[in-house]
């Protein structure tokens, strides 16, 4: 049970992208905002500047769909994992915390590839590759692996970065084609580390 008394009726709420794990923003909730969030499945804050409840996205349409909520050990802070409907920051940025790059872009790319599978389009490279079948996708990973090795041994750092990027992209497509994701690979690597 959340303890709203510690913060004079408000608790801090960390908003995290469920897929990429990127921290998107920090807000505050009172009991009423928390209940509305639970009931509607969209994040509602208590706006200290407006002195009222405020559902993120009520003006922009960039709602935060709740995936899960986690109460901290002191029961006075919340972590809410969400699927954002667009940029989270009022500036139009994906996050209110400006970092040099999205450290979890591979997870975001995995989501983009999944979206290409769910909503195929003739313009999509992923869709065209997928239509060629598992053998072609696996062959493409092999080609990119060889090109990465060649670039590492005989080409510029820029070439090596580009070939490594191509390899990772095609590996993500192959994982998706096999019904697997980065989470499965990460768990396997973690278990090997122990």
From TrEMBL:
Pathway: Amino-acid biosynthesis; L-histidine biosynthesis; L-histidine from 5-phospho-alpha-D-ribose 1-diphosphate: step 2/9; Amino-acid biosynthesis; L-histidine biosynthesis; L-histidine from 5-phospho-alpha-D-ribose 1-diphosphate: step 3/9. It catalyses: 1-(5-phospho-beta-D-ribosyl)-ATP + H2O = 1-(5-phospho-beta-D-ribosyl)-5'-AMP + diphosphate + H(+); 1-(5-phospho-beta-D-ribosyl)-5'-AMP + H2O = 1-(5-phospho-beta-D-ribosyl)-5-[(5-phospho-beta-D-ribosylamino)methylideneamino]imidazole-4-carboxamide. It is found in: Cytoplasm. The keyword Cytoplasm applies. Its EC number is 3.5.4.19, 3.6.1.31. Keywords: Amino-acid biosynthesis, ATP-binding, Cytoplasm, Histidine biosynthesis, Hydrolase, Multifunctional enzyme, Nucleotide-binding. Residues 1-105 are annotated as: Phosphoribosyl-AMP cyclohydrolase. In the N-terminal section; belongs to the PRA-CH family. In the C-terminal section; belongs to the PRA-PH family. Its main location: cytoplasm. This is Histidine biosynthesis bifunctional protein HisIE. GO terms for cellular component: cytoplasm. Residues 106-194 are annotated as: Phosphoribosyl-ATP pyrophosphohydrolase. One of its GO terms (biological process) is L-histidine biosynthetic process. The keyword NAD does not apply. GO terms for molecular function: ATP binding; phosphoribosyl-AMP cyclohydrolase activity; phosphoribosyl-ATP diphosphatase activity. Signal peptide: none annotated. InterPro entries: His_synth_HisIE, HisE, PRib-ATP_PPHydrolase-like, PRib_AMP_CycHydrolase_dom, PRib_AMP_CycHydrolase_sf.
């Amino acid at each position: 049970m959340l303890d709203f008394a510690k913060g004079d009726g408000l608790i801090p709420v960390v908003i995290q992208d469920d897929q990429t794990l990127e921290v998107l923003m920090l807000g505050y909730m009172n009991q009423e905002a928390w209940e509305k969030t639970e009931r509607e499945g969209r994040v509602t804050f208590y706006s200290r500047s407006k002195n009222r409840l405020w559902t993120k996205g009520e003006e922009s349409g960039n709602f935060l769909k709740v995936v899960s909520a986690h109460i901290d050990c002191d029961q006075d802070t919340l972590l809410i994992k969400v699927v954002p409907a667009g940029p989270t920051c009022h500036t139009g940025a994906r996050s209110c915390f400006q970092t040099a790059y999205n450290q979890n872009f591979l997870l975001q790319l995995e989501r983009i590839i999944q979206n290409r599978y769910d909503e195929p389009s003739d313009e999509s490279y992923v869709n065209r590759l997928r239509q060629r079948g598992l053998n072609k996708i696996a062959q493409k990973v092999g080609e990119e692996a060889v090109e990465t090795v060649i670039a590492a041994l005989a080409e510029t750092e820029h070439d090596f970065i580009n070939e490594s990027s191509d390899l990772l992209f095609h590996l993500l497509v192959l994982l998706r084609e096999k019904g697997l994701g980065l989470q499965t690979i990460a768990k396997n690597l973690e278990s090997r580390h122990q």
